[in-house]
Amino acid sequence: MSRPQEPHRPFFSFGNPFRILSPKSSQLSPRLRSQLNAFEETLLERLQKLTPKDKDDVLSLAWMKLAMESLSEGHNDVKNLITELELPVSDWDEKWIDVYLDISVKLLDICIVFSSELTRINQGNLLLQCLLHNLESNSPDQFTRARSSLDSWRRHINSKNPRVETCKPILDSLVESLNLPKVKNSAKGKVLMHAMYGAKVETVYICSVFASAFCGSAKNLVELTIPDSLSWAQAFTNLQTNMNTEIRNIFSQGEVTVLKELGAVNACLEKLYPMLEDELVPVDVESFKSSVSDLRRMTEKLTQGLDLLTKEVDGFFKLVLTGRDALLCNLRAPGTPPDTMLGRNVEGQALS
């Protein structure tokens, strides 16, 4: 996974974003207000869907897949809104473009980090498969080989990925980017800025959860404060409060592996390890076979979850990259026809 290097464009801080996030202004036409309401209602529904119903959902691969799907849907919603607004890139304020390019490159960077960690965890799966092969064989030295595979897996899964440490400065910058540029004399621009704000809040928060899960620390969790006037504010606050409380509780217990599926595999291995200490066949053969069966089942669940999540992360990366490329193409094409707009001219593009 790689991205092209673009010349750095300056990042601007635009002051208090809440001033432009007041309740729907009378300056908006009924059509624009309806379009913004539809976007925010969908955002609210996605946030409610992400709020875990059970604490076991927190930091599970299934929840993380759902969260990444939600981000892709949100960015697609912004793309579709731009198309509906019929807002050509030629009408974009330069400040909007600077913000967009700055945020999109940071999202690409953090996706690369997430993919790197998922790849590292998947490499541990190869050790688990080797372990299972040894446990299920009938060779004289099966337990010696199994212990060796188990020790290798422990060392690998407890090692740290240095790339994950780069998440903190990226997240800090993304939080700063929630400051929005002021919009003057453009009702469509105000609708766009409102939509961008919603998509960015969800994106920044979800990325902070992923970064926390992968680094094994709550230091990457963010606590975002958003205006109460937003229709989706309560749904977001509920999600953030529930997730952050449970994540901090998980870390306070000193869990070695915070991802639920990894934890389940680790529990099976802890049960098996004492049975492998002797050179001879375990005394309780039935218990041994049951433990091996449980390990295989948990390993398959982990493998499937990792594969699905990796596809979602890759898909989100491509979505952001395609949207960025589409915008840059528009900016480089003088005299672009009015009907060639970001959101219409490239399939699958998105606004971050």
From TrEMBL:
Keywords: Membrane, Transmembrane, Transmembrane helix
Keyword Transmembrane: yes
Originating organism: Rubroshorea leprosula
Compartment(s) where it occurs, according to its Swiss-Prot or TrEMBL record: Membrane
Broad class of the protein's primary localization: membrane
Protein name per its UniProtKB record: Uncharacterized protein
GO cellular component, one term: membrane
InterPro entries in the record: ROH1-like (IPR008511)
Membrane topology recorded in Swiss-Prot or TrEMBL: Single-pass membrane protein
Family that this chain belongs to: Belongs to the ROH1 family.
Membrane in keyword set: yes
Domain of life (superkingdom): Eukaryota
